[in-house]
């Protein structure tokens, strides 16, 4: 039976990427060696790394002012790195927009390094909307937001307007649509949604915002050291970078982010349309803030949750249970999710 | 032609591990899904994680006083984490034994968090021996050493004796021989030598040494948080942990560390014997400190370096060029290196 994998992350990637990755574990590029036994400084892997960086720059149209890094430690490490690299040692101050879970964790880590202003929060209604109309102080070292919330199913459609350095955790919607990178000081993303397997973290960073804090930064947390080392200050996550490179090649072959964005809109419309028109289901997110990546929904009669889950399982649909903090259901429909799989879920909903 | 991969790391792993890893990328455990598209919180992956931890405990005979973690960021991140987790915020002091390169980097990072005493160093002769007969102050928060040096080809055969908390970077010789874990506060190791692919870091830590610094530690750097989260405070490096688990299974099937250690001794003896008896080659490391993992050697006539390298390449032998800081040659003969490959190198040396 065909499997439909709606996992929130690590998540589905293109089948073609799995095939190539599997082959490279046995024999990488006809070297007679496995991808995972070669030196990260071998010319073969340096070529993979360079290609991955070049593809990120091309696909996201990254300006020359910005560097691209592949690090380890996920977005959780970036919560700490953004703060330690940007917040001044004397009188450091940053602004956070709290859209739940991840942005809250980011905010908490920043408090280790200075004053943190929560300029807006959607906590009043359990984060079912994106705050709007807030004021951002002008004297902050940076402004941080989480572009898409995987748990509550919300997504920024317009990014915050500010003259301060703008920092975004785009872990769950990077590469899902075009982004004007020039407006950002830092964009970071754990790879394990639209980019690649768990174990790599993409960081896109404007060089001239660094080195201004007066702070001594441990080497592994210092973006300037990683820029100088071209992500090889220490041994990089070779496999995760290789698979990301394969997926970036696939994205380019798909026509880039305009084409990908259009497909994502179609998939999301199909599913939200069913939720809105099927009296058994409801989505409580403000319509204009609905995520195109993570579609959350509830059964109007939650005593039937187990029945619905069983119907999904019977149809080969996996990982649609909602996060434990909100309950209900969640369908994560990242780039690699085919519209046929979304249709399979819609078919189950229709029958239910 | 059969390839003989003497890479210093990432390095050779058993062929059986490559086969299983390759298959899991296509279909993990008959789930119909790829290993790299499943949730790290799925019961299937939690079982992999639990098995990896259990195998580390069994193979290294880890006492109940110690926890096992799989983190990200490599030994370089541990340089920082060991210091921030162990050095007291007021009057913090640690002792480091400097055997070159990696221990020097570890020492440098610790200076961010308190006083660092270099209790011994082999810098006087470019690190071609392991210091002995030094005094360790009794008032230090911990003592740090690097058990094996990949660049200079040295290895501790006896560990430092101290009543202080003992911390070891065992990145390049863990799982190569039995170790009395009970004597250590922390053992850490980047996976990419004897354990698995780049991207995972093994940490074995005595629980009762934590929480005593008076320091606020950012979450991702706090061992107590990772222990509480069972290495899943954030998304772990799924693939690298899975492959490590496969390799741990393989080690166990080989008869464990006693059997592995014996093979490693045989391989090293074969190669050192040739170096010592062949007038074309020389090894300048103190005999009692010679590494069983990384065998460094020079040609007595270095004008023939290129010829020797060409002879190696012609015989399918790769990655025997020495580190740029010492020159000459280096054969890394980790666990997975078959004695036949060492013999292939010895044959080239004999003919040369």
TrEMBL record, chains A, B:
Modified residues (N6-(pyridoxal phosphate)lysine): 193
Keyword field: Amino-acid biosynthesis, Aminotransferase, Cytoplasm, Pyridoxal phosphate, Pyridoxine biosynthesis, Serine biosynthesis, Transferase
Cofactor names: pyridoxal 5'-phosphate
InterPro entries assigned to the protein according to its UniProt record, in alphabetical order: Aminotrans_V_dom, Aminotrans_V_PyrdxlP_BS, Pser_aminoTfrase, PyrdxlP-dep_Trfase, PyrdxlP-dep_Trfase_major, PyrdxlP-dep_Trfase_small
GO molecular function: O-phospho-L-serine:2-oxoglutarate aminotransferase activity
Aminotransferase class V domain location: 5-345
Main location group: cytoplasm
EC number(s) stated in the UniProt entry for this protein: 2.6.1.52
Residues reported in the UniProt entry to bind L-glutamate: 41
Binding site for pyridoxal 5'-phosphate: 75-76, 102, 150, 169, 192, 234-235
Catalytic activity: O-phospho-L-serine + 2-oxoglutarate = 3-phosphooxypyruvate + L-glutamate; 4-(phosphooxy)-L-threonine + 2-oxoglutarate = (R)-3-hydroxy-2-oxo-4-phosphooxybutanoate + L-glutamate
One protein family per Pfam: Aminotran_5
Associated pathway: Amino-acid biosynthesis; L-serine biosynthesis; L-serine from 3-phospho-D-glycerate: step 2/3; Cofactor biosynthesis; pyridoxine 5'-phosphate biosynthesis; pyridoxine 5'-phosphate from D-erythrose 4-phosphate: step 3/5
Free-text remark on how the cofactor is bound: Binds 1 pyridoxal phosphate per subunit.
Subcellular localization: Cytoplasm
Complexes and interactors: Homodimer.
Family to which this protein belongs: Belongs to the class-V pyridoxal-phosphate-dependent aminotransferase family. SerC subfamily.
PANTHER family, sorted: PHOSPHOSERINE AMINOTRANSFERASE
Function: Catalyzes the reversible conversion of 3-phosphohydroxypyruvate to phosphoserine and of 3-hydroxy-2-oxo-4-phosphonooxybutanoate to phosphohydroxythreonine.
Protein name: Phosphoserine aminotransferase
Organism, as annotated: Wenyingzhuangia heitensis
Taxonomy of the source species: Bacteria, Pseudomonadati, Bacteroidota, Flavobacteriia, Flavobacteriales
């Amino acid at each position: 039976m065909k499997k439909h994998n709606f996992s929130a992350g690590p998540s589905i990637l293109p089948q073609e990427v799995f095939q190539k990755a599997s082959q490279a574990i046995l024999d990488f590029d006809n070297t007679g060696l496995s991808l995972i036994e070669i030196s990260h400084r071998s010319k073969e892997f340096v070529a993979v790394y360079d290609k991955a960086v070049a593809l990120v720059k091309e696909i996201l149209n990254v300006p020359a002012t910005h560097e691209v890094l592949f690090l380890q430690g996920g977005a959780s490490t970036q919560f700490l790195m953004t703060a330690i690299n940007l917040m001044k040692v004397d009188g450091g101050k940053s602004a956070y927009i709290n859209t739940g879970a991840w942005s809250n964790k980011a905010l908490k880590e920043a408090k280790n390094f200075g004053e943190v202003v929560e300029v807006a929060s959607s906590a009043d209604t359990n984060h079912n909307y994106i705050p709007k109309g807030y004021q951002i102080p002008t004297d902050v070292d940076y402004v941080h937001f989480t572009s898409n919330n995987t748990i509550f199913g919300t997504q920024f459609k317009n990014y915050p307007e500010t003259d301060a350095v703008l920092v975004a955790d785009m872990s769950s919607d990077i590469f899902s649509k075009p982004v004007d990178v020039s407006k950002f000081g830092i964009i970071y993303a754990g790879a394990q949604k639209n980019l690649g397997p768990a174990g790599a973290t993409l960081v896109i960073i404007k060089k001239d915002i660094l080195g201004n804090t007066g702070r001594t930064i441990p080497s592994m947390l210092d973006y300037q050291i990683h820029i100088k080392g071209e992500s090889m200050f220490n041994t990089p996550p070779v496999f995760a970078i290789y698979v990301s490179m394969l997926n970036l090649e696939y994205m380019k072959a798909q026509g880039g982010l305009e084409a990908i964005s259009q497909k994502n809109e179609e998939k999301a419309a199909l599913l939200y349309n069913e939720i809105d028109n099927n009296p058994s289901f409801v989505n409580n997110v403000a319509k204009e803030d609905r995520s195109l990546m993570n579609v959350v929904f509830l059964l109007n009669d939650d005593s039937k949750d187990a029945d619905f889950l069983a119907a999904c399982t019977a149809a080969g649909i996996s990982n649609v249970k909602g996060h434990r903090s909100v309950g209900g259901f969640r369908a994560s429909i990242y780039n690699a999710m085919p519209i046929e799989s979304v249709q399979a879920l819609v078919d189950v909903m229709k029958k239910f």
